[in-house]
Specification:
Length: about 525
Amino acid sequence: MSRQAPTPHEDAAHAALRRVRREGRWWRVQAWHARRIWRWALLVAAGLFLLLVAFRAPLANWFWNEPQVEQLLDRGDRALAAGHLSAADGSGAREWYQAALALDSDRSQAREGLARTGQAALAQARRALQAEDLDAAQRGLDLARELQVPQRDADAVADALRARRQSGAGFGVLLGRAEAALQAKRLDGSDDSALPLFQQALALAPNHLRALEGREDALTELLLQARNAAAQGDVARAAALVRRARVFDAGHVDLPATEAAVNGALERRLQLGQQALKARRWDTAARHFNAVIAARPDEPMAQQGLQQVGDAWLNEANRLAGDFRFAQAEQMLARAEATGVSPRALVTARQSLNQARQAERALATPRAPRARREQELQELLQRFELAQAQGRFLTPPGNSAYDALRAAQALAPRDARVHDAARQLLPASRDCFEDRLRENRVQAAGACLGAWQALSPGDGAAAAARQRLAQRWLAVGSERLGRGDVAFARAALQAATELGSNPASPEHLALEQRLQDVEALR
């Protein structure tokens, strides 16, 4: 069959359908393009956001610092034009330019401003020189050097200033006074002595030949005096003279030989002190050790020797107190205190002295009836036995075995039971010390050692026990510091020092350094 031709109405319908289809495709194309544009817009926005985050500081600095830097530079220019170069309150040209550089280290105008300020300072120094205002000239020169003007220009002004000072201060008169003091052997010790005067002259003219030679001669004579003092054993004066010579010229040719002579004299005084210590000549030993400490305060051997002298005087004070010789005992305590013995040992010795006084008073009182005295003696001996069994040998004061024994001795000094108690207490205190030391109960061991020393003054074994206890304090303190107990470690170091620990020993130095490190971190 043949296809019928479309009617006009159908043609219109088909045309409308094709138009709708075309328009639908167009909108889809437009929507697709719109979505692509939005994607790109979002990507651009995200990129801008990331750039703002990454460069927010430079941008902020640019927006905010730029006007501030310009303002600082303008203030610097105005201060420079007014000749106001530097001021403590920050209003000088130097301070304004430096503030600008702090905000923008690449700003060349600020660096140029500082350079112009240095040249202006140098010009001010020259004008001050012409006006004879030497102090102002010096201030200008100092500022110019701080701002790093050319060295040649600054040196020229410095030379002119030095020459002006020499002519104005009477350099020749000053040099003549120094040479006259040298001739009179007045080398040092006052402002009109040779060395201080030569030093003033050399401050005005550092290369002046007569001043240099005069100082050299004065130092040679001073060091000769130091060597003579060392040869005579006066190490304190010799060391003081060497220190003064070093102040004036640390490179003097005679200084090494003089220092060697002083060191040799110090060694001899140390040896003499040790010999006197072994011979129990305490006064002589103390004199030698004090002389060494006066010359060299941190000498550990002298400090340790003086500590041993102090301990010996404490023991002597205890012995004298036991004989009721209280005036001599007080003298021994004063000597021991002067050597720097530990406060704890000094307190223990004073307690013994007071107990001896009480015992003397008890002996001076009328005797109680025999039965009553026997009852009191038995009570004291019971207190003695109980305190000894509990390890209360010397402490607490008034309730220790030692206190009970002293009271019993005052009540019945010739009683056999009292003598037996005294004989028991000494070995018991020694055993107590050893037992507590093995248990690392360092405080209790110290109390036992105190009783030992009080009962047996001058016992050499007690002195060795002190050193052992000091070492144990250091070991326990180090162990407790490892567990974080800083307070105990510090107390342990102090206790070891009071017992005579050598400050230069490795254990002492190690604990001290660890404590310093821990405290530095706090």
